[in-house]
Amino acid sequence: MLRREKGFTLIELLIVIAIIGILAAIAIPMYRTQTIKAKLTEVTNAMSNVASAVGAYIQETDGTNWPDCPTSGEVQTSLGVSLGALSRVGDMAVASGTGVITATVAGIDGSVNNCTLVLSPSINADSSVTWNWDGASTISPAYVPKR
């Protein structure tokens, strides 16, 4: 009577290694993209705070004037939104004629650093302000958040 050896054959081990390699080749780039998106949340949250302040400003001026904030320092002094503690926002500005908010990304990843996110307002019939991500953003569309 022959006794059968227990264990895995070389072919079985190679198949398992190949499957793990394929899964890693798919998962690592997806993980990197999701990590960048998660870090961009700090930038988008800061832009949301500035958008709320701009909305309040426009309501106080009866919808006639947009704030003039060409730098992050002006955003803080004019709108009262501090951006100094945020390490992922390089600079932020609000255009005086249009109210467009532009943020420069910093300290996230080489593929998105120094790129800009642009948030554009539109005033509705009831004088409320709606914000949308603008196509003028220089960041890859894969990283632009949904709004």
Explain this structure to me?
- The protein is of the alpha+beta class and 147 residues long.
- It has a single domain, classed as Glycoprotein, Type 4 Pilin.
- It is 40% helix and 16% strand.
- The protein contains two helices and four strands; from the N terminus they run ααββββ.
- A four-stranded antiparallel beta sheet has the order 1-2-3-4.
- It is elongated and about 95 Å long.
- The protein starts with 9 loop residues before the first helix and ends in a 14-residue tail after the last strand.
- The model has no long low-confidence stretch (mean pLDDT 89).
CATH class: Alpha Beta
The residue-averaged pLDDT reads 89
Number of helical regions: 2
Overall spatial form: elongated
The counted number of beta strands is 4
Residues in helices, as a percent range? 40-55%
Task: Provide the structure class.
Answer: alpha+beta
Rg over alpha carbons:
24 Å
- Helix/strand order: HHEEEE
What is the oligomeric state here? single chain
Distance between the termini: 71 Å
Please list the strands of the largest sheet in the order they lie side by side. Answer: 1-2-3-4
Binned strand content: 15-25%
Largest sheet: 4 strands, antiparallel
Task: Please tell me the total number of domains.
Answer: 1
Low-confidence stretches: none
CATH level-3 fold name = Glycoprotein, Type 4 Pilin
**What CATH architecture would you give?**
2-Layer Sandwich
